[in-house]
């Protein structure tokens, strides 16, 4: 009983923390808007900070955990944090040519392209990926969830390289790093799982 109460308290604390960070995100966003900067450029410049590229496991791992526990508010809250983390960090003073080329390729493909098809395809792909991922954990099928996140990440790398060519190479390291952390975390949990009792 005490363990259940402590978990519920932790769940509420996580929700409060998510809310506080979302408020912070809204404050810096509104402050930037009131300063008169071009918001698209402001977000894009800050997205060049690679902290926002490598921070994905911080959101995906607990979101999968809360999907497993069927806590919908936590899942949506963590995904909102993932989206707003694009502009949490200050724009870097220097940007590597590889990162700059990759972001320019993304901008041309998804935002300045006269065809909206790539942007629509990207949006649908992200929605389908997240639905399959969290549905797997919601159904308590951890192995299927791992297959989805591994396949989705590898597919993202393949698409980036196929269409972005040399510029798409910048997606490899952040994607594989995220995948390594997530799979390592899953492996640790698997090794720490309770062992079944031997038959009497």
Automatic annotation (TrEMBL):
Keywords for this protein: Membrane, Transmembrane, Transmembrane helix
Bilayer-spanning residue ranges: 12-31, 51-68, 75-95, 115-135, 142-163, 169-190
Source species, domain of life: Bacteria
KW Membrane (keyword) present: yes
Protein name (database record): Uncharacterized protein
């Amino acid at each position: 009983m005490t363990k259940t109460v402590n978990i519920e308290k932790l769940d509420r604390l996580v929700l409060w923390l998510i809310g506080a960070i979302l408020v912070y995100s809204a404050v810096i966003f509104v402050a930037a808007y009131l300063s008169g900067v071009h918001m698209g450029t402001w977000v894009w410049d800050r997205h060049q900070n690679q902290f926002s590229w490598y921070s994905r496991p911080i959101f995906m791992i607990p979101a999968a955990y809360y999907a497993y526990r069927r806590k919908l508010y936590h899942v949506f809250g963590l995904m909102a944090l993932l989206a707003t983390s694009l502009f949490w960090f200050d724009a870097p003073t220097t940007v590597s040519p590889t990162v700059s080329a990759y972001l320019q390729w993304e901008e041309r493909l998804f935002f300045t392209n006269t065809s909206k098809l790539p942007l629509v395809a990207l949006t649908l792909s992200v929605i389908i990926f997240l639905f399959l991922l969290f549905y797997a954990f919601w159904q308590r099928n951890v192995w299927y969830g791992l297959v989805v996140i591994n396949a989705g990440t590898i597919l993202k790398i393949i698409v980036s390289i196929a269409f972005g060519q040399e510029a798409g190479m910048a997606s490899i390291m952040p994607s594989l790093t995220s995948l390594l952390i997530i799979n390592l975390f899953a492996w640790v949990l698997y090794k720490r799982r309770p062992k079944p009792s031997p038959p009497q």
